[in-house]
Design brief:
four-stranded antiparallel beta sheet; alpha+beta; three-stranded antiparallel beta sheet; single chain; 15 helices; 394 residues; 16% strand
Length: 394
């Protein structure tokens, strides 16, 4: 970088507490002092370059920035004089900013790009899987971890030996996922970032019909059976009219609900306004006031029967026949549909979601691994253990 041509500095004495100093250090002279603090050319030049992208630097540009920079330094000195830099709230906020900035320096950008491409590739597919979970705390002892691992291996051996996956999942000593009694371990279809990363990776890398090796997550050990893989459905926005009907309702009430939804459907087919019918008849009070409109959703966000009926509609404006779910009866109208978008369009959103996911830890681990290799890092466990014993809580 060429040194800045510092012009117009003769007026700094007009800006309280500043004066130009002649210095012996010709390579990095002191340009000025602010409230007794010396400012060297390298520091001023760095800040100027950071905040100004102009190629042609004029005297006016430099003078304007010099005034702003001086006011900034005076404000910092005033804050320090008031002790604001020692206030807990400020220190926590500063620590947060420091941590945020540090992330860009502690990231393996090649790994980041690889994770982005991997996530997008998975976004284009949806996996239908079952699982069996045996709980094991992340900080479990080695003995407890081995015990749970042996149990999950034994369950896997039973299944690969010919026993039915769902029967094993539901049976004694089977899955410890509370939902197994309702779904037999069936998770339905899901896509990227819907599951914890190790589970997602096992599901996407196990062939259809196959049983994964035991996979450890923060919940414990899983084995996964992949039932199917299909192209991602994209996202859809619909409106619906619902007539509530629960599984435990008595027969007359169930019949009344079915009769009511059929009557509403007849009105839709006769050309009556869908939104007005939703406002008048729908049991879903969160959407009825909006004409039955729901937010955009993708696979895995709605109950299966509703989701399948919605994505089964071929074009905007199509209306389904009455569909039954665990909540009641629905008539669904397709409003808009969009397929999975290109990587360029979803890149920024996907990057943000990745940074919030546990897979982001891989970029930090990769970066640290490269640093260790570059600087020939070697750890001596015995010495480290001895050092830890000498340290107190501070």
């Amino acid at each position: 970088m060429k040194p800045l041509l510092i012009t117009g500095l003769c007026f700094v004495s007009l800006m309280g507490g500043m004066e130009v100093h002649a210095q012996n250090d010709k390579s990095d002279p002191v340009l000025m002092s602010v409230d007794g603090q010396q400012i060297r050319q390298s520091e001023f030049e760095y800040m100027f370059r950071k905040n100004n992208k102009e190629e042609n630097i004029t005297k006016n540009i430099l003078d304007e920035y010099l005034e702003l920079y001086t006011k900034f330094r005076l404000k910092v000195r005033a804050a320090e004089a008031l002790g604001m830099d020692t206030v807990d709230k400020f220190r926590k906020e500063l620590a947060g900013y420091r941590n945020q900035v540090s992330q860009s320096y502690l990231t393996d950008h090649e790994m980041n790009d690889a994770l982005l491409k991997e996530a997008y590739g998975r976004m284009t597919k949806e996996v239908h899987a079952r699982h069996i979970l045996l709980r094991c705390e992340p900080n479990a002892s080695a003995e407890d971890t081995v015990r749970v691992y042996k149990r999950i291996v034994a369950l896997r051996n039973r299944i690969t030996g010919g026993e039915d996956f769902e029967t094993v999942a539901r049976g004694k000593g089977g899955s410890e996922d509370p939902s197994v009694t309702q779904n037999g371990g069936d998770l339905g279809y899901f896509s990227v970032l819907a599951m914890v990363y190790p589970f997602e990776t096992a599901a996407y890398t196990t062939p259809v019909g196959g049983i994964s090796q035991p996979v450890r997550t923060r919940f414990g050990y899983h084995i996964i059976k992949v039932e199917d893989v299909r192209e991602a459905r994209g996202q859809i926005r619909v409106a619906h009219i619902m007539v509530a009907s629960k599984k435990g309702d008595i027969a007359p009430k169930r019949e009344s609900s079915k009769q009511k939804i059929d009557e509403i459907y007849a009105k839709v087919q006769a050309g009556e306004d869908f939104a007005q019918l939703a406002r008048r008849y729908s049991s879903d009070k969160t959407s009825s006031g909006k004409g039955g409109e729901l937010a955009w959703f993708a696979t895995g966000r709605m109950v299966k029967t509703f989701e399948d009926a919605a994505f089964g509609l071929k074009k905007d404006g199509d209306v389904s026949a009455p569909v039954q779910s665990e909540y009641g009866w629905h008539i669904i109208k397709r409003l808009e549909y969009r397929p999975v978008e290109s990587l360029d369009k979803v890149k920024n959103d996907l990057k943000t979601r990745i940074t919030r996911d546990t897979r982001s830890q891989k970029t930090r681990a990769s970066f640290i691994g490269k640093l260790k290799a570059e600087y020939q890092f070697k750890e001596y466990p015995k010495a480290l253990k001895h050092l830890n014993k000498q340290m107190d809580t501070t």
